[in-house]
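Researcher: Go.
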Amino acid sequence: MILKNALAQLRSDADFAWDDWITSEADERALLAGYRPDIGRAEHVRRFALEHTRHSKGQFAGRPFTLFDWEWGRVVRPLFGWIDEYGFRRFKFAYISMAKKNGKSCMLSLIGNYGLVADQEPGAEIYSVAADREQAGIIYNESANMVEASPALSAILTLVRSQKRIVHKKSKSFYKALSADVPTKEGLNAHYILFDELHAQQTRNLFDTLRYAGRMRRQPLFLMITTAGYDKHSICYEQYARAKRILDNTDEDHSFFAYIAEAPEGADVLDETAWLAANPSFTELFNYETFAADAREAKQSATMENRFRRYCLNQWTEQDVRWLQMDCWDDCAGQVDPSELIGCRCFGGLDLATRRDIAAFVLYFPDNDHAVLPFFWIPGENARKRQDHDRVPYIDWISRGLIAATPGNAIDYNAIHERVAELCGLYDVQAVNIDPWNAEATTQYLQGQGIEVAPFGQGYSSMSKPAKCLETMVLRRELRHDGNLVLRWMAANATVVEDGKENIMPSKKKSTEKIDGIVALIMAIGGAMATDGDGVSIYETQGLDVI
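Model: Structure:
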């Protein structure tokens, strides 16, 4: 490590094992800044767990809470053992993330009970926080059960289960469970905030309200513990990105602790090393055969794969439930030369979206190996602002010609009209299929240019068959696109909803990011299905079966 020589003298005087405490450049810089490890402070937490806490359920029910090696070495020891020159904890904020069922709730409950009675904080206020009442009750119930299972704790603590409170009368301290649906949380003087499953927070309001609730305390702890999510605009992803910067030594903050157990990006769901990377308690808590069976199921299903990656591999995904298999989508990428398609029969799908959104026009060539040509527009004036807000590389895509930037801060529909008309002159566009909502001006312009325009409903009856056809072509690697990054991003974002008759349709509401290009492609395929030469379904002429 870069500072090891400079720290040699400090190390020779310190009564600690170097490799146990100095695990990153951030730790080296913290040591130089005056922070130091105190093994006694960390051992105090471990002894509290072992001597005064009992597990309440499962295979360890009734046993003393013995920390797993990773809980001790990677979380408890550094989190509670590093102190400043005044003897207060170094870390004020902590982000801890791993796959589900690794004991997060038990560890959070242990820490909550420790903060209530053993952290030497008079009038301590400990709050466990979650997205809803049910989730908030999980941590509280585990904490309360630990108290009931411990003679020492039950003798000094009072449980008020109806209020989800635990009270330590001697120190005038209490533990209380909160949830996002409880209206008032102002004025809290928190010693600990224990934020459970941060990824489930729909807004950042609760986080921001509690962010500074401990600023009057000597050594407050704001602890976030969570599994990966899918909304990359969320407060959870913001904190995840911050934690990654801390771990990568690209951001310096002595007060922020980070521990993330996750499978490497791009890891195969069947890779056993990825299982271990995301599940530090694997050998102690998991059944190998059951886990392997879940992985095999995920390998065969896009829906199950997304859930497996989030819950079992702790990987952030593009959406909650993935629709299209992205490895199959990527296999469809190849050379698509627009000049070779000039004059060829095709069908267009036009999704105008809103004036401040992305507009998409996609041409589908059923007679040319199901080739696809996508075109996109975005307001040029706010592209930089949108990139910074959405964390999407709009500027790069514009510079590479993947998106056209129209003048102003709203999409110039006239520019789209002219470009669509130009494309219809180059290619033999049979019809432009368009969402009829708010499309009167576009329809009139294109029809005035002699272009066939067909209204295309956005419900199940219109969208289901072409959506299933698209899915079939992707799974069979029969679609042909040029690997367009914008269209790929939208394909990865796409989520579908299903009615009671197994009809599907893409959902812009359920998809956390833009899918306009996929909607346009579905409309183009729908046009081809409806208007094939002799009125014969495209399923018959192209040999495709609805899955």
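Model: The chain has 23 helices and 18 strands.
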